[in-house]
């Protein structure tokens, strides 16, 4: 669907700027100098979904495929199928990193399928020090020393380990920092990171709280304007449902999708139940 892809393209455009250089090193993904974000659609092959999570082109020509998991992946056949489809489409070497959230501390990283050997890198966000990350970004913001790495720290802090504050307290501080960012470009970059990365694995109440903070960013206004210009009407129910399904999977706030497609909150909540 062309319009749904357009929404993804808007987020990807901002992701490219948000991940300039090797800023992903702050969450343990080293030697990954990002050039640009790529479309996430997969070819029509036998996979359970037609989209990967995030696809980035690296300076050395490789593709960085990022997948998010809130539960332990029991085997790697699913990701292997994705990467085979990606390799067929782009004809390039692929580096796959699985980002585990919540309490996952161990998962398989190799698959021996005889002639086919498959390996991924696992990053356990729950092992990272969220207290230190939050204190670093708050200190840098107060001292006007904000860095590109700080935006990644803040976007991924949702999923780190906290010992000196509760998770709810940490989330409140994260939202407060987002509100204090004075630079509109930085707000756009952070909105793209949250929508492109953390948005799809956050709780509904967290998404709602962040929506209120991010709703005035250029990125969200650009998404709304794009859909309005494409003339999506309530009568085009099937088209609107398909678009809404894809955007929900990308973590776009429900209110933005509701305004863009004309679907009701109840219809969107029903679509959410069938995302996986």
Task: Describe what this molecule looks like in 3D.
The protein has eleven helices and seven strands. Helices cover 48% and strands 13% of the residues. The chain is of the alpha/beta class.
CATH architecture of the largest domain: 3-Layer(aba) Sandwich
* Terminal-residue CA separation: 19 Å
Overall SS class: alpha/beta
Fraction of residues in helices? 40-55%
- Report the order of strands and helices: HEEEHEEEEHHHHHHHHH
How many discrete structural domains? Answer: 3
Protein name: HD-GYP domain-containing protein
Organism: Alicyclobacillus vulcanalis
Keywords:
276 residues; alpha/beta; Trna Endonuclease, Chain: A, domain 1; 3 domains; 5-stranded mixed β-sheet; two-stranded antiparallel ribbon; 11 helices; 7 strands; globular
Write the layout of secondary structure elements.
Blueprint: H1 2-18, E1 34-37, E2 54-58, E3 63-69, H2 77-90, E4 94-100, E5 110-113, E6 116-119, E7 121-124, H3 130-142, H4 148-156, H5 167-180, H6 184-196, H7 204-214, H8 218-229, H9 237-249, H10 254-261, H11 265-272
Parallel strand pairs: 3-4, 4-7
Antiparallel strand pairs: 1-2, 2-3, 5-6
Describe the structure concisely.
This is HD-GYP domain-containing protein. Residues 184-276 form the HD-GYP domain. The chain has eleven helices and seven strands.
